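Technical note accompanying the year-one report. For the benefit of new consortium partners, we illustrate the data format agreed upon in the data management plan: each record pairs a sequence with a C-alpha cell string. No post-processing was applied to the example shown here.
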Amino acid sequence: MSQATAAVIPAAGAGVRLAAGAPEPPKALRSVAGRALLELSVDALAPLVDEVIVVAPPNFVDPVQGVLGNAAGPRVVAGGSTRQESVRLGLAALGPAAAYVVVHDAARPLVPPDLVQRVLDALLAGAEAVVPVLPVTDSLRRRRPDGDSEPVDRESLVAVQTPQGFRREVLERAHSAAAGHGATDDASLVQSLGVRVATVDGSPLAFKVTTRLDLLLVEALVTTR
C-alpha cells in the first residue's frame, strides 16, 4: 500500500459565535498577529504530509487561495452546507496517491507538529482511525429531564481534538454511508462502520477557537512565541 499522506482542512465555517450574526470574513480568515488562523493550521500540517486540501466557503475560494498563495502548495476547493459535506468534498479532491488522510479543523491554529506526527505515526503503524485526546479535568454533571442533575465519572472520559487520522478508504466509505448526516466528528462516522478508533495524546495547544476569548488567547500565544 502507498504510504502517501494527505490533509483535509475544513475551513468553511462562518464562526457565528465570534460575533453577532454571520461575520465577514469567515472564522478561518480571522487575523491574529497579522496572519489568518488558517495559515497557522496549514503551516503546522503542510511540512508533514504530501498533499493539503483546504475546504472553503463557496464564495471565498479565491480569497482563501490568495491568502495561502497560488504557487504549488495547498489547494482550495469549495465546501458544502455542513462540515460533513465539506469533508466529503475535500476527500473527493485528493489525488490518487494518498492512502492516509488527516482531517484538521482550521479553527485549531496552534496544533503542535509533534501532535500531527503522533497521529500519522499511528496510521503508518497500522491503525485505521486515530484521534488525539486530552483528559477531562473539570467536574461534570448530567442534566436530567426533571430539572435535577447528577455527577458524571470523568475518569474514563477524554476530550477529542484534531487532526483525526484515517486510512483513506475507510474515511471515504464512512462519508459515503453518511451522506446528508451532518455529523461534526469524522471518527464517529468511521466507528459506526465497526472500525476501531485508536487514541494518541493530544495537546492543550490544539484548542478550538470558538469565542473571542479563544481568539485573544491565540493572539497572545502567537505574539509571545
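Partners are asked to follow this layout when depositing records. The two ends are 39 Å apart (CA to CA).
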